[in-house]
Amino acid sequence: MDDRQFRNAMGKFATGVNVIATEVDGETYGMTANAFMSVSLDPKLIVISIGDKAKMLERIRESGKFSVNVLSCEQQEESMRFAGQKQFEDKFEFDELAGVPVVENAVCQLSCEVYNEHTEGDHVLFIGKVNDLAMTEADPLIFNCGKYRRLEAMEEVK
Q: How far is it, in rounded angstroms, from Cα 142 to Cα 33?
């Protein structure tokens, strides 16, 4: 199988859309990602996956902390901004949670410190210990088969 075929197969799995953010030397950085999951309740751990060529990789290593911001279905523009899909003249203003930059109005904001890291293939998995979180009542932004999507409730199967 070639890289494109594998990538297309992985795109069949619907994911939420997240912005990973960190701060280094007073400058805040964000990156759109969908490789995120929970790992443990005790301690409260999550994992994010960052490509080994991404600028965010060294920034997280340097800061030792990051946030995961689960975007709402109203935040496609924020996703596009931090994925480099769309350019903006204005500087993005982040909020803060437990000393870490977060995206305002995200469905969920997780403030994390790097707990561990593992290099696997061409990505680095950062295990983050969640120090604080905040949530809002909104539907998440979904990404599937190369397109942004919204959730739609289905009838229960009986």
A: 12
CA angle 13, 33, 71 (to 5 degrees): 90
Structure tokens at 24: 């280094």
Q: Measuring CA to CA, how many Å separate 123 from each of 23, 37, 49, 110, 146?
A: 21, 15, 6, 21, 20
Helices (H) and strands (E) in the chain, counts: 3, 12
| pLDDT tens sequence for the chain (158 residues) | 899 999 899 889 999 999 999 999 999 999 999 999 999 999 999 999 999 999 999 999 999 999 999 999 999 999 999 999 888 888 899 999 999 999 999 999 999 999 999 999 999 999 999 999 999 999 999 999 999 999 888 888 88
Calpha distance 34→90 (Å, rounded): 25
Domain limits, the chain: 3-147
Q: Which of 76, 86, 82 is nearest to 56 (CA)?
A: 82
Distances in whole angstroms, Cα of residue 49 to Cα of each of 42, 70, 134, 138 = 21, 15, 22, 25
- Greatest Cα pair distance, the chain, in angstroms, is 56
The pTM for the full model equals 0.93
CATH class entry, domain 3-147 = mainly beta
